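Readers outside the structure-tokenisation community will struggle with the description of the input data as it stands. I therefore recommend that a typical entry be quoted early in the introduction. An entry of this sort, consisting of the sequence and the corresponding backbone structure tokens, reads as follows:
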Amino acid sequence: MLPETRQDQCEETPLLGHDHALESRRSTRARWILIILSLGIIAMNFGNYLSMAPQIQIFESIICRKMHPEIALLTNEEQIAARCKAPDVQGELALVNGWKETLDTLPGIVLALPFGLMADQAGRKTVLMLSLVGLIMEEVMVRVISWYSAFISLRTVWFMPLFQICGGGGQIATSMVLTMITDVFPVEKRANIFFVVYASTQIAEIVASPLSAWLMSWTPWLPFFLGVFVMLLGLCASISVPETLSKSHKLSETDTEDDEADGDAPRTVSHRLKAVLNQARHQIMHHSRFIFAERNIVFISIAYLTATVASQSLLIMLQYVSKRFSWSMAKVQSLPPLLALSDLKQASFLISLKGTMNLFTLLLILPVLSKALDKYLPPIRRDLRISLGSILTTAVGLVLMALAASPTVFAVGLSISSLGGGFVPALRSVATALVDEAEMGLLGTTIALTQGIGAIIAGPLMAGTFKFSMTLDGVWLGLPYMTATALVVMACWATWMIRVPRLVSHIG
């Protein structure tokens, strides 16, 4: 027996060593993919935030020159500013920006399904690269229109989201990044990795915004064009990242190949059109079954939808505090927050406060909490508890913001609501553990679809409640944040209704 035992040990030792080496290579590959994707995210978001304020200022200047050509003869900056801050200029600016933001979300909604299925067939990297190319092409054309605004109407920017037909836009790009991370990291690590990814966007915002303001002291065109160059670096990162979709998980195309192989007769245009329509019908049915056949996916979609709408309440924050607490603000209605920063010195710290608290939560509080919960809960239930706790924290913060009678209480409420920043990444970690690996791309685009719909609903809803609240007095001035609180409570309910199967919980 002893010789057999030694022989078994000799046979098992190389196998164990091989498994360890394989696991080490996988871990190293996963870390490199995370680093490359994080750099790409930082580059894309950095370029976006670097360009955001300059774009608004350039748009305002273009509109102002069109509506008030007499400013070319003026030398007094106050007189020029008075004309450019006039209601007619600001109304047109709000119209241009408002419609552009709305139209920017449509490609991601309409194309979520086909690009989700494409990601599960052709690969995540392919869809990611297409998305980034489409986004950069749109940004380049916006700059071309702005530069040649003397010959091209500024409203032409409304048609630039058509470039997002290539890849589906930002929502699809974000979905692909998170799906690629899901492919290479195990369930127990996903939530913390998602925290890092979402924190990278906060880093880009915190660094790029003041840099943009500094560069704008010379000319807004400098950060406006520099932003596109930085975005190109993000595209380079996507080119260098390896494909993460395993060949064994690609959806089978056998049926399609068999159909194409049947007979040698050429297919007419009508036959090809019929085949395309049939394929689209099957895709829609497949996506519908994916969403509605599983109760957990339904509740996850509801949670993402309502939480996305509620999160947009922060877009009216500066205008809200200027009215509620009589803080100084330019005499312009519907003024975009970034444009108001120079006139709203007292309220500008709220943006930095929100970003700092989000970063602190994602990089410190949640990883420590996650590690502490590991002792008592399996990973999936741990992430579900974190997501539920995060959305409850957000609800408490929004209640304080709605009822705040002083700036201090409002700032405390904002800080508390920012502590709930782990809801989206934690819930996504739960969602990825509840679906088959072959449908990860479809899951990602389902989430992107619900968030896109939420963003479209949020704009008019928050603007409408804010406008109506301005006709009220007292505590009812907080109506926008009361509405946001109600939506967050609905997201709490949807998250509470998610049930982790015993087998999945055990595996996680």
